Amino acid sequence: MKPGSEIGPWLRSFKNMEQIISLSKKLISIKSVEGNPKALGEALELVLPSLKDYTIERFSKNGVQSALVYNTKARPSRFKIILNGHLDVIPGKESQYIPRVKGNKLFGAGSMDMKANVACLIEAFKTVANKVKYPLALQLTTDEEIGGFDGTKYQIEKGVRADFVLAGEPTNFDIVNKAKGVLWLKVSALGKTAHGAYPWRGESAVWKMQNFLEVLKKKFPLPKQQVWATTINVSRIETKNQAINKIPDECSVWLDIRFIPEEAQTILKKIRALVPRGFKMEVLANEPALFTPQNNTYVKTLEKLGKDLLHKKILLRGAQGTSDARHFRRVNCPGIEFGPIGGGIGSDGEWVDIPSLGKYSQILQNFLLKIQEEI
C-alpha cells in the first residue's frame, strides 16, 4: 500500500491527515509498555522533535519520563487549556506492534488507547499554538496505564495547572465529564489455629472473612450489566496457612472498588462500617473520581463544536474506568475525556477509525480557536 493511500479523497480536506496516520503507525510500532523504559523513552523522543519550535519542559520521576510542551517562553502559573495524552499502552501480542490498515480501520496495540489520538493532539497543538494568545500546553506522559503517578500527577506536584484539561482518551466522540474513582483496600481477619479435625477448638479466619464478604456483596450487589453505581471486585484472597489439616488463623482480601463521584465523600466510611470489629483495614490507594459539570463553559463549547462538525448530538456520559484527568481534580482543575472512534480496547483486535481522526483533529482545532474568540 502506498503511503497515504488509506486516506480517502474527502479526508484530504482535513489538514495534515497523512502526517497523523504516519505518526500513528510509527508510534504503534514501538512496544511502549510497562517494564520497557527504553521503548517508552523512544516513543517520547519520536514526537518531541516535531515540537522543537515550542518550549519543551521535561520531567522525570522514578525513571518515568514525561514532557510538557507550551506556546510561551516560560511556564505560566496557569494554562488556559492543557491537552493531555499518554504514549504507554496495554501490552499486546507481538503481531499487534505491526500497524495494519483494513478498510477504514487502523489496527494495532494502543491504536485506540491512545497513540492515534496523541497524533491528533500533536497536530492540533502545532496548528493552533501560534494562533492563540492564551497559554496552551500539550502534556505527554508514559505511565497512564499504571496510574499516572510519576507522569501527570508528578507534573501537577511541580505546579502545573490549567483552567481546563482535555484528555484525549477514546470516547467515540462522547464527552466523558465524570468517571469513577478508585479505592483499593486490604482487609484482614484474625482467627485461632487448631487441628483441622477439631474445628470447635479453633476459629477459622477464612470463614470469618467469608461472612464479611457476604455482607459486602449484599450491600454492593454484583451488576449483571453496565450500571452507573459503585462496584466492588474481590481481586485476591490469601491465607498464610499452607497445611490442609490446620485451621487458618489469618486471612486477607484485596478489594478493587470503583466508586461514582456521588459517593466520593462517603464510600470509605460505608466500607469501614461493614468491617467487623477485630478486622484490620488498610487503604492501598484512593484515587479521586472525575466530575466536571455539564454547564461548564468549556464543555458546552466543545459539545456545540462537535455537534456542528459531526452533525449529531454529542453525548455527555460517565466512564467506568479512569484516566489521568482525575489527577487535576485534586487541585480543582476541571477536565474531561474526549476522543475519536475505535474499538477492541486492550484486546487482540484493537482498532481506531481513520476517518474519525481527521474529524477529531479538526474539532480540537476549532475548540482551541473558539476559546481565543471568547476571551
Topology:
Layout (H helix, E strand, L loop, with lengths): L16 H12 L8 H11 L7 E7 L2 E7 L8 E8 L13 E3 L2 E3 L3 H18 L7 E6 L10 H6 L4 E6 L7 E5 L1 E10 L14 H15 L11 E8 L11 E10 L7 H8 L5 E8 L2 E2 L5 H14 L5 E4 L5 H5 L5 E4 L3 E2 L7 E3 H21 L1
Parallel strand pairs: 3-6, 3-7, 7-15, 8-14
Antiparallel strand pairs: 1-2, 2-6, 4-5, 5-17, 8-13, 8-15, 9-11, 9-12, 10-11, 16-17
How does this structure look, described?
The structure is a single chain. The radius of gyration is 24 Å and the shape is elongated. The two termini are about 45 Å apart. With about 375 residues, the protein is α+β, with helices and mostly antiparallel strands. It folds into two domains: about 10-180 and about 290-375, Aminopeptidase (3-Layer(aba) Sandwich); about 180-285, Alpha-Beta Plaits (2-Layer Sandwich), CATH 3.30.70. Strand 16 (about 340-345) and strand 17 form a beta hairpin. The chain is built from nine helices and 17 strands. Helix 1 (about 15-30) crosses helix 3 (about 110-130), helix 3 (about 110-130) packs across helix 9 (about 355-375) and helix 7 (about 295-310) packs across helix 9. The protein is about 30% helix and about 25% strand. The longest helix is centred in the last third of the chain and has 21 residues, at about 355-375.
